[in-house]
Amino acid sequence: MRTILPELVCPAGNLPALKAAVDNGADTVYMGLKNTTNARNFAGLNFDTRSAIEGIAYAHRHGKKVLLAINTYAQAGEVDKWYTAIDQAAELGVDAIILADMGLLDYAHRTHPNLRLHLSVQGSATNYEAINLARELFNIQRVVLPRVLTVAQVAKVIQNTEVEVEVFGFGSLCVMVEGRCLLSSYATGESPNTHGVCSPAKFVRWEKTQQTLNARLNEVLIDQYAASEPAGYPTLCKGRFCVEDDTYYALEEPTSLNIIEILPELLNIGVAAIKVEGRQRSPAYTAQVTKVLRKAIDLAVNNPVNFVINNEWQQSLAKLSEGQQATLGAYSRPWK
Amino acid sequence: MKHKLALSLGPILFFWSKKQVLDFYQQMIDQPLNTIYLGESICSRRQEMRFDDWFGLAKDIACAGKKVVFSSQVLLESESDLKRLRKLVDQGVFKVEANDMGAVKLARDHGLTFVAGQTLNIYNEQTLAFFRKLGAVRWVPPIEMPATKLTTILNETTNIDCEVFGWGKLPLAFSSRCFTARYYNLKKDSCEFKCQEHPDAITVNTRDGQSFLTINGIQTMSANCHSLICHYQQMEALGIKLLRLSPQSQHMIEVIQIHHAVINGQLAIGDALTQLKSFAEHALIDGYWQGQPGIAAIEECHYATS
């Protein structure tokens, strides 16, 4: 057992969110550029050169690190756009870039040998053989694991690789192996791999009928709400569908991942970093989640034996969760 | 000489009994297929066919003159998943389709060439060239890739064969969660192998009655049937070598025969589509090839060309 202080890695969808993360205890922030090279390519989000320079300077001034996610797959005939993003990241002086595409990892490793490389969750690396190949080929320093492994499986990965392991700690739960889900492009033509978006907002249409509010994604009915029901964003995998005679959340309920309950276990097995999802969320969200996880991680590291889950933490995180519900997701075997 | 598209049979993506599997391949041996993919690529709990069973079957199929490739499991989570993967790579006779970077690692460690499966996410010419260097000799593009982008890549790439997914429910997503077990309110670890009661998996409809998805254990597929037969001439012009037909429990022989007849100029596309439509569980789609959402139906004009 090696208990180390894991980095708390927080989302920076824009400059105010970056500052909120740094001010509330993040060790590291991650961000993306304003284009399809990053997997949260939403209108009004992300960084141009100017805001990136300011954000990186702010984080570095406070002794914090900055990661840049270039984690979509470079598209045919347009690879230069992704190469430019990598070159730009090197120039900006980020502490690491987060990549998924093997060709881009190869380019980054050859062109910028001193730039630290992380393998993105979009890279779908769920086992140490895959991770060790990326280490051997590109000298990756860290891997972000998809949200599909149990704690025991994460531990096995850590035991069998020199690569640092980063896991998701809080935020919207991706039910599928990231990088291997095309549900979004099946319905809309755009997917996380190709356009950096899942269930893109421009395809969402709300339709009011006499009894219901219908949420459509490119005309596919994702969910239908009665007048008394709160309506959520129509993320494809969190809709209600009919299977034979049952209507239910066939893939997953709208719920968020929250690992506070198993934090001591994650520290015990030696995770190097805990990541918060949510570059598309507000600076207030980033501030609140960062504050709670900072307290929880510090207590779990400094006093693991007496680690008790604080109800206030959970209540405050529940308010920020989808459907106000939390799950341990795949970390817990019964979820499967 | 004009290049001709050959047919391949993808791995069985559903959970069939050992007898069903063996009976199925007994029929497939006589079909005009160039390559047959074998093995369990979806769920580690589906083990009616053990490695020795697959290997024996592979030898029989190879003796009948077909090329055999073992498809590796897409999602590798546990040590036992890796153990099965090592067996696949260690057998040393048949090529392996790598569906995860872990399989690429083991193939490379053994100095073996491999088929780069669609879930390796090769979306551009530079990445494809990189995989070529790692030992890939054939490439199955991601199913969401449109013909225009594939053309760009293939114009840049000459030393690797391309195989396109051309028939069947689209394999869209993978999870560690079993959606079939979830439907039955069971846990994955005690799933009672309910998949076996659904030889073409379970359709998921929208609440207004549109057939939308299919849940196949940890895999999510389209409900509609992807069909690229209308585009076979374009595929031949692009130099695509193989058209992959994905197994279904009923009418597979007819599906293969129709594709074969079209490629050999013995059957008009419109007639083929009309027949194929009756052999698919739901509507025929080709949106991805056209640069549209994957769910987009095959345009009526293709039916009118007969």
From TrEMBL, chain A:
Keywords: 4Fe-4S, Iron, Iron-sulfur, Metal-binding, Ubiquinone biosynthesis. GO terms for molecular function: 4 iron, 4 sulfur cluster binding; metal ion binding. It comes from the Bacteria. Its cofactor is [4Fe-4S] cluster. One of its GO terms (biological process) is ubiquinone biosynthetic process. Pathway: Cofactor biosynthesis; ubiquinone biosynthesis. It holds the Pfam family Peptidase_U32. [4Fe-4S] cluster binds at residues 174, 181, 198, 237. Required for O(2)-independent ubiquinone (coenzyme Q) biosynthesis. Together with UbiV, is essential for the C6-hydroxylation reaction in the oxygen-independent ubiquinone biosynthesis pathway. Forms a heterodimer with UbiV. Belongs to the peptidase U32 family. UbiU subfamily. This is Ubiquinone biosynthesis protein UbiU. It comes from Entomomonas moraniae. The lineage of its organism: Bacteria, Pseudomonadati, Pseudomonadota, Gammaproteobacteria, Pseudomonadales.
Automatic annotation (TrEMBL), chain B:
Keywords: 4Fe-4S, Iron, Iron-sulfur, Metal-binding, Ubiquinone biosynthesis. The lineage of its organism: Bacteria, Pseudomonadati, Pseudomonadota, Gammaproteobacteria, Pseudomonadales. One of its GO terms (biological process) is ubiquinone biosynthetic process. Pathway: Cofactor biosynthesis; ubiquinone biosynthesis. The keyword Magnesium does not apply. Belongs to the peptidase U32 family. UbiV subfamily. [4Fe-4S] cluster binds at residues 43, 178, 191, 195. This is Ubiquinone biosynthesis protein UbiV. Its cofactor is [4Fe-4S] cluster. GO terms for molecular function: 4 iron, 4 sulfur cluster binding; metal ion binding. Forms a heterodimer with UbiU. It comes from Entomomonas moraniae. Required for O(2)-independent ubiquinone (coenzyme Q) biosynthesis. Together with UbiU, is essential for the C6-hydroxylation reaction in the oxygen-independent ubiquinone biosynthesis pathway.
